[in-house]
Amino acid sequence: MTLDETTSESLFDRAKQVIPAGVNSPVRAFGSVGGTPPFIASASGALLTDADGHEYVDLVGSWGPMILGHANPRVVDAVREAAGRGLSFGAPQTGEVSLVEELVRRVRPLRKVRLVNSGTEATMSALRVARAATGRDVVVKFAGCYHGHVDALLAEAGSGVATFAMPGSAGVTEGTARDTIVLPYGDRDAVTSLFAERGGEIAAIITEAAPANMGVVTPPESFNAFLAQTAHAAGALLITDEVLTGFRASAEGYYGIDGPTAGGTRAADGAGAPPVGGSDWAPDLMTFGKVIGGGLPVGAFGGRADLMDLLAPLGPVYQAGTLSGNPLATAAGLATFAGLDDAAYAQLARTSSTLQSLVADALTTAGVPHVIQTAGTLFSVFFREQPVTTYEDAKDQDTAAFGRFFHALLEGGVYLPPSAFEAWFVSTAHDEQIVDRIAQALPAAARAAAQG
Ligand code: PMP
Asked: Does domain 73-339 have CATH number 3.40.640.10?
């Protein structure tokens, strides 16, 4: 270690000896923005403190789960209390029933749900159920949508796959890749003609309820309803992935925004297909993660009861997990939901829109081309002038300008997602004082972005 080497640098050096790229998830390596990632020592509210004692306003929020801020006292107390009663039972426990009841109460299409340990497990399991239910193999996804590192879903995926400009992943068999068809996001004609040609082979369409892993792309008006209608007309299913948008884009995720308006009929009453088309539509299966575990590893998939009852031991679809429904994770999820009332969502919406204005003002003043896109309270900033509607658009932005902006903000004490392809995450702990700290750092960052 040289005299002025930081603790984060020496930790990164150590990590790289024993962990590929020194990280346990690719985007954390700062590969596309360069530099050494700060190693985080602790976090509280909206703030992170790294191993060198630097403090940052956090706009990553662990990529979504920390919606009440870090080390929220209610969540930490609930986890501590649960830990005192045992860490894992591998047997049914109260918290998992309560957490699933909470999900079913909050999201209209959910009739039955299984808890898993990550968003990846949730989408992988939902796909398996869809294939079993339809007896078909083909799955349709959209370019730029990320659904975790499930073999079948890595083709033209967003998130880290986009950050590192990868077409997909090595190690996925040809057979698996053949069963995945990738279409341009939002392209109704492409969906219609694919179904006209191969509808009888398609098990499911899977889509992010609102794409947020190529940056945030607002779904075209009633696009998800159209997908439901098209899939159902061909005997296929629609899976909406709300791992990122769930309980964040709105209280009911993106379905709370483009699902039937409040007071409409509750969809999918167990057996049979849910209502199709029009405004009264529902996905057959949905996936969740992030917020529902409050920072501990949890995912969930659920939807129509008849589909979920295909799972073992009721039905022929095998799916399991040693730590699924873990008592600490369900305690963290329940405590997080306890803090997610209407006032919390109103505050998240206010903070998100204030931040959008501040960023737009700073970038406009510095003359940096940008466009800010939203999906409910979710937003991201693209470094280009024209709106982004597809993955091709998202890739066509000034990532070098983003890199300069990112590093200047980091220097100014603001921790952004280290990629131009990610949403920015706020929490209820981002109060006026915190937003003011971001406002202070923005002008210099915008000027840095301008200096290409
Ligand atoms: N689906 C979506 C929409 C996601 O954003 C993510 C993670 N960013 C996943 C699935 C995978 O979740 P996990 O990282 O928990 O496996």
From this structure: yes
